[in-house]
Amino acid sequence: MKNLLSMKDLTIDEISAILDRAAMLKRYGIRALPQKYMVSNLFFEPSTRTKMSFEVAERKLGLETIPFEANSSSAVKGETLYDTLRTLEEIGLDAVVIRHPEEGYYEDLVGKMNMAIINGGDGSGQHPTQSLLDLFTIKETLGGFKGLNVLIAGDISHSRVAKSNADALVKLGANVKFLCPPEWAGDFPSVSDWDEVIYTSDVVMLLRVQHERHDGKMRFTKEEYHEKYGLTVEREREMKPGSIIMHPAPVNRDVEIAGSLVECSRSMIYKQVENGVYIRAAILETILQKEELAWERSSRVHMF
């Protein structure tokens, strides 16, 4: 795998290999790679979890992380993303992690450079590393995907997480449903009544309302949205035994999810954050190392 751009590009075997590698790193610890690589994280949109977990993974792998700040780079002078990346490639970088507001920004870059590209989120398009950590958390908690009922609720049409997870979960055999205001469904069939889905869902995945992509046009107050479309305390009580709550964060407490549920016994929200480091380390290893590490070959186990 040279790049990681979209969950649509990954086969079931490739997904399984990354999940297995992440499980191994979580069991045995993340080790420094035997060869030095240079990487940089290019975030043109705000981020806490994705950016920081990549940085932690990179340090644990012994990578040389070259700082990049979008607001002080030549991008503010009009330099194209392609020219920025060609510059970084020519000065010796092996890989970049990019978050960009333009959906599909990578389409014009593929095949034009040798440096690896990892998509850290593109507009309302894809977020493959978040999807992989979500899959890892589901598999670690529930054991697999086939036949699982997964509900994704929230700002579907603007969510790269929803699109990435829908692609992957259906591919892996899960049943995926969507709950949102009708005008936020995009191309996905959706419901707007919790009673249709709450009793049968194994996974309830909440999404943040992305105000920055709505041009300030909202027909709900926060209280109205929570009452009609949020996971309230009352709805959580109706969830089936053993089902889990997920959220890619940042969380708007008492909007898409009641604040008291963020750290309840069903919630995997902070487990997702923890697992993000292992998944992102596994992705970096997979892309930077063309062959399996010797220690991994000698101790390969399937964690799930």
From TrEMBL:
Its EC number is 2.1.3.2. Pfam families: OTCace (PF00185), OTCace_N (PF02729). GO terms for molecular function: amino acid binding; aspartate carbamoyltransferase activity. Residues 146-286 form the Aspartate/ornithine carbamoyltransferase Asp/Orn-binding domain. One of its GO terms (biological process) is 'de novo' pyrimidine nucleobase biosynthetic process. Keywords: Pyrimidine biosynthesis, Transferase. The keyword Transferase applies. The keyword Cytoplasm does not apply. L-aspartate binds at K77, R160, R208. Pathway: Pyrimidine metabolism; UMP biosynthesis via de novo pathway; (S)-dihydroorotate from bicarbonate: step 2/3. Residues 2-140 form the Aspartate/ornithine carbamoyltransferase carbamoyl-P binding domain. It catalyses: carbamoyl phosphate + L-aspartate = N-carbamoyl-L-aspartate + phosphate + H(+). InterPro entries: Asp/Orn_carbamoyltranf_P-bd (IPR006132), Asp/Orn_carbamoylTrfase (IPR006130), Asp/Orn_carbamoylTrfase_sf (IPR036901), Asp_carbamoyltransf (IPR002082), Asp_carbamoyltransf_Asp/Orn-bd (IPR006131). Carbamoyl phosphate binds at R49, T50, R99, H127, Q130, A249, P250. One of its GO terms (cellular component) is cytosol. Catalyzes the condensation of carbamoyl phosphate and aspartate to form carbamoyl aspartate and inorganic phosphate, the committed step in the de novo pyrimidine nucleotide biosynthesis pathway. Heterododecamer (2C3:3R2) of six catalytic PyrB chains organized as two trimers (C3), and six regulatory PyrI chains organized as three dimers (R2). Belongs to the aspartate/ornithine carbamoyltransferase superfamily. ATCase family. This is Aspartate carbamoyltransferase. It comes from Sporosarcina thermotolerans. The gene is pyrB.
